[in-house]
Design goal:
heterodimer; A: about 200 residues; elongated; B: Rna Polymerase Sigma Factor, Chain: A; Arc Repressor Mutant, subunit A; 2 domains; 8 helices
Chain lengths: ~200, ~180
């Protein structure tokens, strides 16, 4: 059977409706696509990270001056700001990924480009967080005294830095696996489609 | 004054929605075809249809009219089906008779034709996402110019692909 012989039958065939929902009603519904779900996650991250420092202050209202003079609190605020900036960047990227009106090939290339960019920055962000965390643990005791850090600093530098190295390796391995699970397979699929179109 | 401009804006919004609905209704069949080719179950088809309509509405203000409306709709529908709503189970893994278009068969030749169409659909369901899109546009009698505009592939490449797909489908229908 040839495709050309079936053209007419295909065009004349009555296509059964896949949805009986009203179009006007549909356009007012929210998208449940994966990109829309990602955007919702990033929005929630931004809200949560904006609220947590406030909650810390509110729960310590009887001793606000101690909170404001704590170097850990300000480091935490800096961390939250970093996460907010990164979530905002991700939100912006996801918004671009939602654009579906371009040519199919161009759209696929854009999706791959944006996903790779996002993965690249995620890797940089995670490394930055780890370095920030190590610097914090190592320098804070010289500036302010925290009982919880005394035990850690009583260990030899070899053990401490060995632990940081182990943490960096674990982070690298876990992140590789997670990012492959989250977007890696999708990236492979998209790249396969692009090479199919070349 | 603000009340007046608010009223005017909501009136414009209503007009845009009505115009959009008319456009979608006019080309609704192509959306259902995309859903039938790319989604597996009834629920997935309904989800895909909803997602495509939402994406069309979102990109409606950006549609400048420098492409045909059907071209724009094909682009959004195919992009959404291929990249926007991908879950493994959404894709047709094997022959699914429920995806076939309905057609009355009053005589024997029509029944044979219908049977052949079913075979061809079973073959199409085994193609990859890009091949499905090419076949769909070809069956909808789109010119290579239009196919290029929708898919972004060169005409030479499309012709080569089309020949390969035809061979592949011939093989697949022979096997079945």
């Amino acid at each position: 059977m040839e495709l050309d012989e079936l053209k007419q039958t295909w065009q004349q065939a009555t296509i059964e409706k896949t949805s009986n929902k009203d179009i006007m009603e549909l356009i007012h519904q929210k998208s449940y696509g994966p990109v829309a779900a990602l955007k919702r996650v990033f929005r929630k991250q931004i809200v949560a990270m904006s609220l947590i420092p406030l909650i810390l202050v509110v729960t310590n209202l009887n001793n606000v001056s101690a909170v404001f003079t704590s170097i850990l609190f300000w480091c935490y605020v800096a961390f939250c700001i970093g996460i907010i900036v990164f979530a905002g960047y991700n939100y912006h990227i996801a918004g671009k990924m939602e654009e579906m009106h371009g040519e199919v090939k161009q759209n696929l290339e854009q999706q791959v480009n944006l996903l790779e960019k996002r993965l690249h920055w995620e890797l940089i962000g995670l490394r930055a967080v780890l370095i920030f965390f190590v610097i914090l643990l190592e320098t804070v005791p010289y500036v302010q005294h925290y009982r919880m850090l005394d035990k850690w600093h009583s260990l030899s530098p070899l053990i401490r830095f060995g632990a940081y190295a182990a943490l960096a390796i674990t982070q690298y391995v876990v992140n590789r696996r997670l990012s492959y699970h989250k977007v890696g397979r999708h990236l492979v699929y998209l790249k396969g489609l692009i090479s199919e179109m070349r | 004054m603000p009340d007046k401009s608010l009223k005017q804006r909501s009136l414009q919004q209503l007009q845009a929605e009505e115009e959009f609905e008319q456009q979608v209704r006019l080309h609704e069949a192509l959306l259902h075809k995309v859903c039938r080719l790319y989604a597996h179950t009834d629920a997935d088809r309904e989800d895909l249809f909803q997602e495509i309509v939402i994406q069309l509405w979102r990109s409606y203000p950006k549609f400048r009219g420098d492409a045909k409306r059907s071209t724009w709709m094909y682009r959004v529908a195919l992009n959404t089906a291929i990249t926007g709503l991908r879950r493994k189970k959404d894709f047709i893994q094997s022959y699914d008779p429920a995806m076939l278009p309905m057609q009355q068969t009053d005589d024997n030749s029509a029944a044979v034709k219908e049977e052949k169409l079913k075979e061809m659909y079973a073959g199409i369901s085994q193609l990859n996402e890009i091949e499905k899109a090419i076949v769909m546009l070809y069956m909808d009698d789109k010119s290579y110019d239009e196919m290029e505009e929708i898919l972004g592939m060169s005409q030479g490449n499309l012709r080569v692909k089309m020949t390969r797909i035809k061979d592949k489908l011939r093989q697949l229908t022979k096997q079945s």
